[in-house]
Queue: 2 jobs
Job 1
Amino acid sequence: MMYIGDIKNTPKLSEIISEVRSLESSSANLKKVNIFILRTFTVEPLIPFLKWIFLKNNMLPEINIEDFGVVESSFYNPKTQSLIENSDILIFFPYLDFIDLNSQRPGWNNENVKDRLAKIYSLLKTKKNGITLSFNFLNALNDVMGGLSATTSHSKSEQIKNLNQYQAQLVQESPGKSFLVDLNQILLNLGLENSLDYRGLYMNKAPFKNEFLINIAYSVLKKALALKGNSKKVLVLDCDNTLWGGVIGEDGISGIKLDKDLYPGNVFYRFQQEIIDLNEKGVILVLCSKNNEADVFEVLDNHPDILIKKNHLSYWKVNWVDKATNIREMAEFLNLGLDSFVFVDDNPIEIELVKTQLPQVACVQVPKNIYELPGILSKNGYFDTLTVTDEDRKKTQMYQQEASRKTFQQGLTVEDKSEFLKSLDLVCTIHKIKDSEISRVSQLSQKTNQFNFNTVRMSEADVISRNNSSEYAVFTCHVSDRFGDSGLTGVIVLKNTESNITIENFFMSCRVLGRSVEAIFMKTVISKMQELWGKKPIYATYTKTNKNILVENYWEELSIKPEQVTNEGKTFHFGYDDIVFPLENHIKIIE
Amino acid sequence: MEKKLKLIISQILNVDVQSIDENFSKDNCESWDSINQMALINTLEEEFNIRFSDEEVLQLLSYQLIKIILKEHGVQ
């Protein structure tokens, strides 16, 4: 997996072009991504970068570009209609010339442009599958109002700011389906000199420099990756010289550098703020530090300027064991794949060790110039997700509950196991999907890799269309116990065909596994749909990936033998009565 | 310089290095369209560390012309 932070120097165009050719010639097994671009300027120079960045991430982009300036009419032309509908990512990329030329005149306002945007977004909404990605307008450069522009509401720059807000509103009308990239953010990061090519703009209507283009390509990739469920989930933090300056074991709580105002403590303070923001977005925080646990928690509990407290952490390993071993154990404990981990440390040896032993983990080295530390995590784009749900926000709490469950469980003998399950007071709420759950269901389908039978990713539009179809039934499962509420953690999608009931999709969050919930959920859903669709045989499949070995023997454990076993997976064909379900008297089911 | 130039042209226009002779130009090469023209100019500037003037940009239409203009920029 490549992140923008991994591209240290933008490669030369000739290198990119030849690399694209050689990657394309060996791309037979790569997953195809269809991209269709509606544009008002020469977007072609973007294409090599777009292809390069997708191919580098093991996807083969098929890119089509609409002619200049025919944004609206392409929705009525049968040929482009199908390109629009079949695209995984539809890109709408207007440039400043989209705004009429009178915009340089005093008294200009953006009403006409707003009308056109509203019309275009009503057309974009008609696309049923895949996602739409828009770019906004660059804030006006060389505003004729000069120093007065910020306080003059009809100045071009104020009108464009207002237009960008309006466009953002239109995009937000299709949550989970329509996304916006802020070009001004890229411009700010790179600076004008590295971004805009005036010769290209006036000679060829191609306004962007290569470095800018690669960042645009990356922003498209990020959306594609988040759509495929590849964003990181866990942030593993070292303590000394990462969360604060200095070494707690040597410098003591009053000696370490951590301060609201004073350099260098203010750098670490700011870095902690960013980490807290990520945590609130749903990123799981864990500590991995070679220290005495008591020393570290003295800082966390008592330092006047500490922001990261115990309650932000889902887990920690403060010991003298090597960090690769620690991280491996954390992954097991949290039930998450190593490729969802990001590891931050100031010690190059630790970074190297983790890189070699656990290549799936993304490693971030604390920079030599310590003032470059804040911003490093967002710059790399590791934690970009398409949406943030309430469950994300509660995630830390849920993993903490899971930790206390496990500690509780460890103190029990095997014979106590069933007693233990009973003592959990498990409650499963199982019902057909509600409108309010659509975004969470889509997100869970994107993020779940381990307990996932066929790894079919569903966009919100996919969920909605299945929910609206009488051939399909989408069920959700909420799990709670005495330690807390895990929320919506399981989804089953059934399809009613002439000869059988097909289990099209079945995935669950790993948080709730191992308590028979995964079997009881299936039992409840199938028996319910057999009442409605008839007692037909059941057809189930398992599609093998690198990650879903967890469910490989799910059906066998319920006494169902596979009909066919291949390298790609298994198929099962059976009657409901063949299934031997485990005891369920420890679970209370609410429908 | 000629070897490097031919390599660049062949990469950008996706043609065989051998096919680039003294007569090679925008008129007899199908893949030499306006988009590749832009890529070619950007790459030449990047590779030879020069900046073409506006006039030169419009003149870079054949292998021969590119060679002449590169020489004027002191490229050996």
Note: Chain B touches chain A through 14 residues (CB under 8 Å).
Job 2
Amino acid sequence: MVYQGHLAVVKVSSTGSSYQTVDGLNSAAISSTPDLEDVTIFGSGSGPAPHLKLPTLIDWTIDGSGFLLADANGQGLVRTSALTGALIYVQFLYNGTTGYSGSGYVKSFKEDASASSTAKFSFQIVGSSALSAVG
Amino acid sequence: MAFASYNTLVNINQAGASTAFTSEATTLVGGFTYQITNTAKRCWDPAVPVQVYVGGAPATPAAVDYLLGRVRLLSTPSGAVTVSGSYLPLLLITTAKAFSLDLQFDVVDVTKFTATERYHAKQPTLLDASFTIDAFDTGQTIFDDGSEDGYNADTFANVITSGSLKVVEVVFVGVGKVRRLACYLSSANVKGSPSSVIEASVAGTLTRLAAGVDISFSEMMPDGQF
């Protein structure tokens, strides 16, 4: 069954419990990228041959963007982490209950506005721990 | 609830216009943090140390936020909190039409051999921030270079020649959110075409002049810090 995008939720916490929803989001993405070392060596086959790769460490990020809200606890927690560098726990739940969880740091935080639109914000959290399944 | 930003205000300090204030009243804004009540005097000149008084007696604050005119005390004060110092008037950029504020933390890899899981470990180090302001260029003399041409005002086209510290402010009027940034201007552009109007954009980058003089958001942090 295909999950409907509007069910997705990003939650954050400063302690790893009592998660707060980052309200106002209309776009979010989680990305996991393993470092793949090329370990191809001399003598690998007699003709054209594929590279031999070995995964080492994994990087992951969670990106979100949406509307800046007048008062929202989850947005406030992201903003605080962006200003202080404090560790932040994050959950990306693609149907509201199932998804991924980990902790990291807010690497970027942006607010922008124009006279003809609403005020918006975006952020990126980079992982600093294992990404684990939720739900 | 999302909010429209047509009534957003973008301001910049008027360099060289530092004005002294004495025994100004403050208002409690959360925790042990007090903010000068007079909204016109909330951007304090970092070159002039702020004096804090509790019930008229000198007091040592735990921290001072020069950009938003706030002081955090060590405990609940026993009397009225007043402040003396000097403030920088802010001038409205009346032709501004868009802005963006971008915070970037340097996050470095600190993964060690003793790692027990196959994930990178990270550590934030320094915070940087930058902004851009887009405006219609009407020759408005709001950017102040404070020196080279003898006038206390300048245009978009001339502002990039100035190397003086700026304080840029964005106010989301409808929801009362304020951001202030101590910065140096890094670029200015003016462009136009026969079928359009003349537009200008200015970009700047954060600098930490001293403690409490870098970047400030009006929202208090959960632990009462600013």
Note: Chain A has a mean pLDDT of 93.
